[in-house]
UniProtKB/TrEMBL annotation:
<dbReference type="GO" id="GO:0005829">
    <property type="term" value="C:cytosol"/>
</dbReference>
<dbReference type="GO" id="GO:0006753">
    <property type="term" value="P:nucleoside phosphate metabolic process"/>
</dbReference>
<feature type="binding site">
    <location>
        <position position="274"/>
    </location>
    <ligand>
        <name>Mg(2+)</name>
    </ligand>
</feature>
<feature type="binding site">
    <location>
        <position position="258"/>
    </location>
    <ligand>
        <name>Mg(2+)</name>
    </ligand>
</feature>
<dbReference type="GO" id="GO:0019144">
    <property type="term" value="F:ADP-sugar diphosphatase activity"/>
</dbReference>
<dbReference type="InterPro" id="IPR000086">
    <property type="entry name" value="NUDIX_hydrolase_dom"/>
</dbReference>
<dbReference type="GO" id="GO:0047631">
    <property type="term" value="F:ADP-ribose diphosphatase activity"/>
</dbReference>
<dbReference type="InterPro" id="IPR009288">
    <property type="entry name" value="AIG2-like_dom"/>
</dbReference>
<feature type="binding site">
    <location>
        <position position="327"/>
    </location>
    <ligand>
        <name>Mg(2+)</name>
    </ligand>
</feature>
<keyword id="KW-0479">Metal-binding</keyword>
<dbReference type="Pfam" id="PF06094">
    <property type="entry name" value="GGACT"/>
</dbReference>
<dbReference type="InterPro" id="IPR004385">
    <property type="entry name" value="NDP_pyrophosphatase"/>
</dbReference>
<feature type="domain" description="Nudix hydrolase">
    <location>
        <begin position="216"/>
        <end position="356"/>
    </location>
</feature>
<feature type="binding site">
    <location>
        <position position="278"/>
    </location>
    <ligand>
        <name>Mg(2+)</name>
    </ligand>
</feature>
<dbReference type="InterPro" id="IPR013024">
    <property type="entry name" value="GGCT-like"/>
</dbReference>
<comment type="similarity">
    <text>Belongs to the Nudix hydrolase family. NudF subfamily.</text>
</comment>
<dbReference type="InterPro" id="IPR020084">
    <property type="entry name" value="NUDIX_hydrolase_CS"/>
</dbReference>
Length: 372
């Protein structure tokens, strides 16, 4: 059996149990000459050389089938292994250590407790799905899926925490839905879930078994930059495959700035990031319009829409986007009245754009943007 030294997120006992697939005995150990810091790139642990320090952790010796599960999980993050001499109460032993490829420490000690509070539930849920893929896909395929998989897990956690009221709609909890079978036949840029289920009916009792399918997606955010002094808005335009697939002769679509909410981000943080990426615009005060499902009959996508106060002088238009994501995004700055005219002409074709423009128009009439 291989000895493995754990110093980071797998010190969380629940995550360790999910990844290993069993309770494996763990003993305290430390790695001399190293310390565990928060990565400069985000909230994950990274080993940093430090004479006189010792990275505290646990030593495990899982059977081969359980060690293979851990290899699969760590390979999903492209973590690499190295041999290290670790100290235990019984003496010094050689153990395998999983380390992030490259990166630097932040100079701040990494906190397991802080990580558990901020990222523990999402990471455990994502790990459950990851290990369900063990033996079915290789490490390269897992690395491709890992980002969207973790983003979906983050959305699931958020859905359970931010619950809309049930004053008009039925007070029927999801636990009363009976799942007969569920499959995920497609998983690439997003996933498709197919489920056989029964659910409570308004007449009482349960429905007959039925099959439902939907695009399984992470939460998204939209934002329209608005300049209240010049009464201008910024829209973006890009090629949209959905419009192309429908047969639209002109599949370049006008929209608000939009993007997926990454794990650990708030919707507002994601909106600010996307505004910089897609339009090179910095946003000041943010006004939340609403949170809503884009089409719950066919997709799990939940959107938070915002208006962001921005300075939009002449010459604010640009072509931008993240090159590695093949984004080719053109921005348009126009008066609010000209943007509202797009509703009448039919050139405004997406729900978030229609909603956002109408909200800005109403907010202006209500004095929402007036100086305090």
């Amino acid at each position: 059996m291989t000895r493995i030294f754990l110093f980071g997120t797998l010190l969380d006992p629940d995550l360790r149990r999910i990844v290993l697939g069993a309770e494996i005995e763990a003993t305290p150990a430390h790695l001399p000459g190293w310390r565990v810091e928060r990565s400069a790139q985000g909230d994950w642990p990274i080993l940093v050389r430090s004479d006189g320090d010792a990275a505290q952790g646990l030593l495990i010796q899982p059977p081969s089938e359980h060690a293979a599960r851990m290899d699969f999980y760590e390979n999903g993050f492209d973590f690499q292994t190295a041999e290290a001499e670790v100290e235990t109460d019984a003496g010094r032993v050689t153990a395998r250590v999983y380390r992030a490829p490259g990166g630097a420490g932040s100079g701040t000690e990494w906190s397991l407790a802080d990580w558990q509070a901020a990222h523990g539930p999402m990471t455990r849920l994502a790990a459950t799905e990851v290990l369900g893929l063990h033996g079915r896909i290789d490490a390269e395929a897992l690395r491709f899926r890992m980002g969207t998989l973790r983003a979906r897990a983050s959305s699931t956690i958020r859905a359970g925490r931010e619950v809309a009221p049930t004053m008009l709609r039925a007070d029927i909890h999801r636990d009363r839905v009976e799942v007969i079978d569920q499959q995920v036949p497609y998983h690439h840029f997003f996933a498709v879930a197919e489920t056989q289920l029964r659910h409570p009916t308004f007449a009482g009792g349960m429905s007959a078994p039925m099959e439902r399918a939907a695009f399984w997606m992470s939460d998204a955010v939209t934002v329209i930059p608005f300049d209240p002094v010049r009464r201008r808005v910024l829209l973006v335009e890009q090629f949209r495959y959905g419009a192309y697939l429908r047969g639209d002769p002109y599949p370049w679509i006008l929209e608000p700035i939009a993007g997926r909410i990454d794990p650990g981000e708030t919707p507002e943080t994601a909106a600010r990031r996307e505004a910089l990426e897609e339009a090179r615009v910095e946003l000041a005060a943010m006004h939340r319009i609403a949170g809503y499902y884009s089409g719950p009959g066919a997709t799990s996508e939940f959107i938070d829409s915002y208006v962001g106060i921005a300075d939009l002088p002449d010459g604010s238009e640009t072509v931008a986007g993240v090159e590695g994501e093949h984004e080719d995004i053109r921005s348009h700055v126009l008066t609010l009245d000209a943007a509202l005219d797009l509703i009448d002409t039919g050139e405004a074709q997406t729900g978030p754009l229609l909603l956002s423009l109408l909200w800005v128009d109403r907010a202006l009439r209500r004095g929402t943007f007036d100086p305090a």
